[in-house]
Write a structure and sequence with these properties.
With about 350 residues, the chain is of the alpha/beta class. About 40% of the residues lie in helices and about 20% in strands.
Length: about 350
């Protein structure tokens, strides 16, 4: 009998974490332990529904519990386990690591949101700095073979480069969120060197798709157009984003997971490599909904960057090849949106 490869996915009730959990739960010989603190940064029902979709039926009975931690099991896959756990609780985190024999850790848990970080920086200190430090400590203690962690394209700040490359300077973040993500990279690098541990950081570029967060542009624009609300477009529409469909992101994470490397520390861009102007992005949504947007053009706001565009040459060298165009991806997203939110077409 082949021994199960035990992996931990933090932030498993989040957007990327949910999709990664679903991906690995379809594979044989994996035991997947999911971890999330189920915070209320955005609609908790969406997080609960993601977990329900993974087979965690007991989440219905635990929605109103005040317990800081609990464990539930998937009815779809006996090797899929969920722990409600905050990374800031070191003892609770340590107990989970002592219970299992993790070979790999996928760290996706974080306080998200560029704009929220300007008004609520303490949330980012707790989750993204102190929580990340706790994770590094248990990774060190239990000698985890490979830790893959989420960074962000926001570390590039307002780069003037046409394509953002991993080796360019990233020491001028324009948001506190970006500063915490850059800090994660530096901390992981130091632990890698000090304790001979393997870490891979992934700089995600504007991930979108079904089950996406309601604070992101695909939801805000789609919902606004459907309800004939003003759509806020900053920098008077002169913003570009390297939108990357979730399926391509999951493929990229798995390629990194399956790769071998003599270098214990590596950073990869993981994006689409084709930036889209926000005004064109709105037009794609309009076509899919057969509705017109009501735009409100506004000046640049604090924390935003003008453009993101990933140079994905390094990830392509180990097999990454994004396949989903923005037109196909948004068509899939909007079909999911209309079904999930029960909106008649």
């Amino acid at each position: 009998m082949i021994e199960s490869h035990q992996i931990l996915i933090t932030g498993a009730a989040g957007f990327i974490g949910y999709h990664l959990t679903k991906y690995f739960s379809s594979k044989e010989n994996f035991q997947i332990v999911c971890l999330d603190n189920l915070n209320s940064y955005y609609d908790l029902d969406l997080k609960y529904d993601r977990l329900l979709n993974l087979g965690f039926k007991d989440i219905k009975n635990l929605k109103k519990t005040k317990s800081k931690s609990f464990v539930i099991y998937s009815v779809k896959n006996e090797k899929l386990i969920f722990h409600k756990q905050d990374l800031c609780d070191f003892d609770g985190l340590d107990k989970i690591f002592s219970k299992y024999n993790f070979k790999s850790v996928f760290h996706l848990a974080a306080q998200a949101g560029v704009r929220f970080s300007i008004t609520n920086p303490a949330e980012y200190v707790n989750s993204n700095l102190f929580g990340f430090y706790n994770l590094l400590e248990v990774v060190k203690k239990y000698k985890i073979s490979h830790t893959i962690f989420a960074s962000s394209s926001s570390v590039y700040g307002n780069s003037s480069k046409t394509f953002f490359r991993e080796n360019q300077k990233t020491d001028e973040p324009v948001s506190f969120y970006a500063a915490t993500k850059k800090s994660n990279e530096i901390l992981a690098h130091s632990y890698s060197k000090l304790y001979n541990l393997r870490f891979t950081g992934l700089r995600f570029f504007t991930v979108y798709g079904p089950w996406g967060r309601p604070d992101m542009a695909p939801y805000l624009f789609t919902n606004g157009i459907i309800n004939n609300q003003k759509i806020k477009i900053f920098n008077n529409g002169n913003l570009e984003r390297d939108f990357t469909f979730i399926d391509d992101i999951i493929e990229g994470i798995n390629i990194v997971f399956e790769s071998s490397s003599k270098n214990n520390y590596k950073i990869f861009n993981i994006g689409n490599g084709s930036p889209v102007k926000l005004l064109n992005f709105v037009k794609i949504i309009e076509r899919n909904l057969d509705l017109n947007a009501n735009l409100k053009l506004l000046p640049m706001q604090n924390g935003d960057v003008y453009k993101t565009c990933a140079d994905i040459f390094e990830l392509k060298k180990i097999g990454y090849n994004p396949k989903i165009s923005i037109d196909e991806g948004m068509n899939r997203y909007i079909n999911w949106f209309l079904k999930y939110y029960k909106i008649e077409g």
